[in-house]
Amino acid sequence: MRVLAFRHVPFEGLGLIEPALESRGVAVDYADLYQAVPPLPDTSHYDGLIFLGGPMSANDPLPYLRTEMGIVERALTAGTPVLGVCLGAQLIAKTLGARVYLNAQREIGWFDIHLARGAASDPVFTGLRQSETVFHWHGDTFDLPAGAELLARSDRTERQAFRYGRACYGMQFHLEVTPQMIVDWCEQDENCGDMRELRVPPDPQFNRLRLNDIARLVFGQWCDLLP
């Protein structure tokens, strides 16, 4: 099996998603459509698609984001499993006709998510506690797409995760981050505006061990949906 991961900046990679893929024998390629002259991938050769995060907005008039939304639409029509993280989740929601807009508050750092009632029996979220502390870095949010099931919320963001159909998942939070990724994100020029709003930088080690367990469980169970 092989999946294709869409990056939007060089510093937001798969992180903890990668060992979950490896544990299931799933190979991965990257698509970097943000580059000047990127090759357009043939997604029909892949068993699943992953859309990662980035500092831009799903509403930005960037041609490669429109291209990715077209890829999402075709994948959903074909029944291909799709996973969206942060910006990736917003792109999926927008593709499905939902509104993406500024959240009332930025959510940067470690905050709890609270699972919705249906999450306990969901194929990907089953096994999690009712509330889990996970990492966040977002200013935008989205409405729940028509026909989607809400899986998680937080105190600052009402829609944190959803499932659409059998195997399309959007997650506003970042289960994939390693401590090294958090340190790197805090140092990136693209994130300097966000960093100025924080009184102290997020602790990269906080809840690290539990996040590893959550990522192994959630991403591994998403891999189990691959054909």
Describe what this molecule looks like in 3D.
With 227 residues, this protein is of the alpha/beta class. The protein has a single domain, classed as 3-Layer(aba) Sandwich (Rossmann fold), CATH 3.40.50. The chain contains six helices and nine strands, in the order βαββαβαβββββααα. A nine-stranded mixed β-sheet has the order 2-1-3-4-9-8-7-5-6, with helices on both faces. Helix 1 (17-23) packs across helix 6 and helix 2 (63-78) crosses helix 3. The longest helix is centred in the N-terminal third of the chain and has 16 residues, at 63-78. The model has no long low-confidence stretch (mean pLDDT 96).
- Uncertain segments are none
Instruction: For the largest sheet, list the strands in their spatial order.
Output: 2-1-3-4-9-8-7-5-6
Estimate the strand proportion: 25-35%
Question: Main sheet?
Answer: 9 strands, mixed
What count of helical segments does DSSP give? Answer: 6
**Which structural class best describes the helix and strand composition?**
alpha/beta
- What is the C-level CATH assignment? Alpha Beta
Helix-residue proportion: 25-40%
Spell out the helices and strands N to C.
Answer: EHEEHEHEEEEEHHH
* Rg calculated over all Cα atoms: 16 Å
Could you name the CATH topology? Rossmann fold
What's the CATH architecture name? Answer: 3-Layer(aba) Sandwich
**What is the end-to-end distance?**
8 Å
CATH homologous group name: Class I glutamine amidotransferase (GATase) domain
What's the mean pLDDT score? 96
- Total strand count, please? 9
